[in-house]
Amino acid sequence: MSKGRGVSGYTHTQQQLDAFANQHNPNNPAYRANANNHSNQCNKNNSAY
Could you tell me if 30 and 23 are in contact, meaning their C-beta atoms sit under 8 angstroms apart? Predict the structure, then answer.
């Protein structure tokens, strides 16, 4: 039985699998950009807050 983590190659296309992997890879620029954006949104000292 699945624990509900990740995606399966049986139910998703290769493009969907790649996108999921990129979203969860700390070495990926999109992952870092998302993490930085989240950090900025939570920082009261940020002008964009």
Answer: yes
Burial class (CB in 10 A: 0-12, 13-18, 19+), 31: middle
pTM beyond 0.90: the answer is no
3-class DSSP state of 32: helix
Locate tokens 């940020």: which residue? 46
The token pair that represents 32 in the structure block: 């870092």
* pLDDT tens sequence across 12-48: 999 999 888 888 899 999 899 889 888 888 888 877 6
C-beta contacts of 16-20 below 8 A and 24+ residues apart: none
